[in-house]
Amino acid sequence: MKLHISITLLVLLNGLFILTLEGQTLERKSLVWEQRKIDIGPVLEENGPIETVFYGLNPHADSVFITEIITDCGCTAVDFSRDTLSTDKIAAIHVKFDPDQRGGDFSKAIIIKTNLDNEGDTLFLEGINMPLPDKPEQNYPYRKGPVGFRLPVIHMGNVLTNEPKTKFIELFNFGKDSLALQVEHLELPEHIYLVLLPEAVAPGQRALLQLAYDGEKKGDLGFFEEEISLTLQDDTHPIAIKLTAVVFEYFQPVPKSMENMVPRIGLSEIDIDMREIKAGNVVSRSIFFDNLGGEDLIIRKVSSNCTCLRVKVSDDSLSPGQRGQITFEFDTKGRRGIDHKHITVFSNDPINPVRTITIKSNIK
């Protein structure tokens, strides 16, 4: 009987000990980093390795020293001091990225382990790797005077209004003289900023056009095709460059609990089938839109993807619970066969700020 009681107590104490250990969590004492992610931008292979530095502060009363640093690629090398860091001292992690033949965007992880944090902190080195082309005539086929480009058009993609979007465009100097931009003759719209890196391009060398597109300064929403003109030094003929961009208004994320309090747009139809239409006829149709939210709904813009499709909106502002009407006219002159057109509605609905209405028809 005594043996049975002793075994029972031993089991209970052992279970309590295990539960106590499971309930304890070891506090991680990590360094506080000035930046956890560094973007080094475009990396041209011919310029060699790029170096940068991560700085980490020891905010703890205990001394810290780095025990190990792990990188996920042989192209990323690190150098650091193993000296002990007392409180408020700073560690410097020197990182060198050596470009290889794999082009495109990259993100390299760097794991920092210390005597107080064996799990390690993860830092990231990001950029755009641009290998050196071995056949410039093939790699830069679109020529404008002495300058060669990879593509005939600069595609900026989606641009939000909260910050400018930057893109780097490669160019190659096929001429016999160095090239540079005539900055004093650079007439650009307010929403576009442009600089040549480096400022001068030697014959047989490549460079980058750094182009920044500011959606807020554009002052409009939707898809745009634009053309900018560059004048090179010692060249009287400007270079015309086409670019495209799609500008969207930026909204802060909306918490689930507030979804019914913000403006919300509702459409009575988003897929409209006009069925068969006789060629040459002008047909019209109306749909309704409602403010399903708790604040005023504002229609920023309504556009179509064809001049043959004219759109009118009854109201550009609706109070909560109100209804408006969108009317369109479709001119089928010169068109035949299965046809698809789109109407795009931009509003201040932060959850669905862009709505697309598809119009299908068969023109005979």
Automatic annotation (TrEMBL):
<dbReference type="InterPro" id="IPR013783">
    <property type="entry name" value="Ig-like_fold"/>
</dbReference>
<dbReference type="InterPro" id="IPR011467">
    <property type="entry name" value="DUF1573"/>
</dbReference>
<protein>
    <recommendedName>
        <fullName>DUF1573 domain-containing protein</fullName>
    </recommendedName>
</protein>
<dbReference type="Pfam" id="PF07610">
    <property type="entry name" value="DUF1573"/>
</dbReference>
